[in-house]
Amino acid sequence: MNNTLIVIIGPTAIGKTSLSISLAKHFNCEIVSADSRQFYSEMSIGTAAPSEEELSQVQHHFIQHKTIKDTYTVGDFEKDALEKLNTLFTKEKYAILVGGSGLYIDAITKGLDTFPNVDSNIREKVREEFENFGIEHLQDRLKKMDPIHYHNVDLQNTHRVMRAIEVCLSSGKPYSSFLTRSKKNRPFDIIKIGLTTDRQIIYDRINLRVEVMMKEGLLNEVKSLYPYKSLNALNTVGYKEIFNYLEGHWDLDFAISEIKKNTRRFAKRQLTWFRKDSEIKWFDYQEDAKNIIDYINKKTL
Questions:
Q1: Pairwise CA distance, residues 156 & 212, whole Å
Q2: 194 is in an annotated binding site
Q3: Whether the Cβ atoms of residue 2 and residue 188 lie closer than 8 Å to each other
Q4: Is 14 annotated for ligand binding?
Q5: At 128, which CATH number?
Q6: N or C: which end of the chain has fewer CB within 10 A?
Q7: What is the average pLDDT across 90-106?
Q8: CA-based diameter of the chain, in Å?
Q9: Most confident of 112-126, 144-158, 276-290
Q10: What is the CATH number of the domain that holds 254?
């Protein structure tokens, strides 16, 4: 039997962590996280990182292994995670990759396109433009520089908009010209499991999760990170809304409602991304793990 990577994907709050632990226990293997928001040690509550109790059940990798001050790209993750998987596959025939960050999942399962290096001065200038003029200014600039990518990129993802502009400025070519979409071969088999349900149930689960986060101390977590709010890692849902509250722009109830709304939008974008992948076998989020295990076993015969 070949080594097999079991990939568990789906929108936020759907139950990926719970399923991944169940499968890891059954297949006696370890878990690699591909949730880019959970890489940072200072961000626990707002990213819904696995609890200490969950982490104690199965060995996890790439959970809170970086600080918000670190620069850690999807290319860095591809390199590090593939090295980790090579090590894991010397011990067991299975490993599990879990997360809702489509780009990071694709980096491991399909590989990344190659982009030119970006000069640090260009990166700093783009960052200053964002801080001085906001995301809409950068969106307009990208539309002029690369209309193709403008219509494909998540325009609310500041990091990706900035990254595209940086590549355009560094290379003198559109960002989209570097997207070859050629899939790279991996030295292991890949089985993709998707969790989903009716959209309203997903939205209800998201709303409940945000309320639980607030009870667990999200406000205090964000307060402690306020001095670093300009860092890219913190330009994310659950943090930027409370920054607006702390600065007096919004009241707390409105900030919480915006977290819920923006998380629902994020989940919709996640599903749009994953629905394009015909290799994913979809299961309802309440599916018995035994049925998913049976499906995996049949695929590896």
A1: 25
A2: no
A3: yes
A4: yes
A5: 1.10.20.140
A6: C
A7: 94
A8: 59
A9: 276-290
A10: 3.40.50.300
Q: Are residues 189 and 285 in the same domain?
A: yes
Judge if 162 and 291 occupy the same domain. Answer: no
Mean pLDDT is lowest, of 3-12, 154-163, 286-295, for 154-163
Token duo for residue 219: 């406000």
DSSP letter at 71 equals: -
293 in a labelled binding site:
no
Nearest 10 degrees: Cα torsion 162, 64, 69, 156: 20
With cut-offs at 50, 70 and 90, classify the pLDDT of residue 16. very high
Q: Indicate if 107 and 228 belong to the same structural domain.
A: yes
Q: Does 238 belong to an annotated binding site?
A: no
Amino acid type, 36: S
Q: State pTM to two decimals.
A: 0.86
Q: Is 12 annotated as a binding residue?
A: yes
Q: What is the mean pLDDT of the chain?
A: 94
- The SS3 assignment for 50 reads coil
Residue 164 known to bind ligand: no
Residues 156 and 75 in one domain: no
